[in-house]
Design goal:
Structural class: mainly alpha
Strand order of the largest sheet: 1-2
Strand content: under 5%
Shape: globular
Largest sheet: 2 strands, antiparallel
Order of helices and strands: HHHEEHHHHHHHHHH
Distance between the termini: 33 Å
Mean pLDDT: 81
Radius of gyration: 21 Å
Amino acid sequence: MSLRCLLSDELSNIAMQVRKLVGTKHPLLDTARGFVYDSRNNLQMRGLVVLLISKAAGPSTAELSFQHNMVSGIYSSQRSLAEITELIHTAFLVHRGIVNIGELKSCDGPLKDMQFGNKMAVLSGDFLLANACTSLAQLQNTKVVELISSAIGDLVQGIYYENSRSSENCLTDDIRISTWKEQVFLSHSALLAKSCQAAMELAKHSTEIQDMAFRYGKHMSMSHKLHSDLQPFVKESSSDTMAFSLNCAPAVLHQEFLGRDAWIKQIREAQGKGNLMDYKKLQEAIKAGKGVTSAIDLCRCHGNRALAALESFPPSEARAALANIVHAVTRFS
């Protein structure tokens, strides 16, 4: 993937400004560190999937005249789309690092550091998003612009849901797994699903192939999110209990089986002095119920749907690689 936009003078200037945050506790620093030291190696997963599905689909019979633009079985426009997808994802990661000044405590450090960090998060995220939009316009494909623009709208809506939930101190939303899936589609799956579909549109593939690419992106990223949510409950090696969201899939499913009132009672029993949460106690309560096993089943269900969508593509190394990504996020033993 070309990273020319990440090596530009403007972004170098942003990087210099972000260095001023070193020594503070602003979360933008953690986001920046994640770009350099990503332990799970999934930072560029979305761009990689767009490139792989482009290669798996190959050239369209309707666009034989454009095959001279292909390199290693991928059109140049599809490579640009992979960059755009990564830029949008990165921009939203940066924007998520904005701190709620009203909820700061004295242990979080000086207010001016947090205010400066917020300004940098807004400006650098906007810069990346503006670059993505410029590149998107250069593709000169109205349907692709429409698809990716709607994915940006979905992301905003999904993050709005997340933020409106997190304002409730230590309590969860009264939602069922169907609502959870709708919200996770917006915040985690829409960008990849619509980027996969857009990659097929750029190669002028049929509506059926576009739909299968969309399904693969949707179900694979749903599996990826479920796998991530399950980590605090399935990791055996960790001695310290990982903090987890009370709106994660195992917790939502646990609440669905247990009942809202009983779940709230368990949360309150796990709250200590100063509303500090005993996550180990909550983790054991969720493990004792059906939430974890049901979330694993759901993860594998979405994985199987992603694999079924791949059957529409001819056998190839790229298709095998896409299947391996699904196998990786549905393996728990």
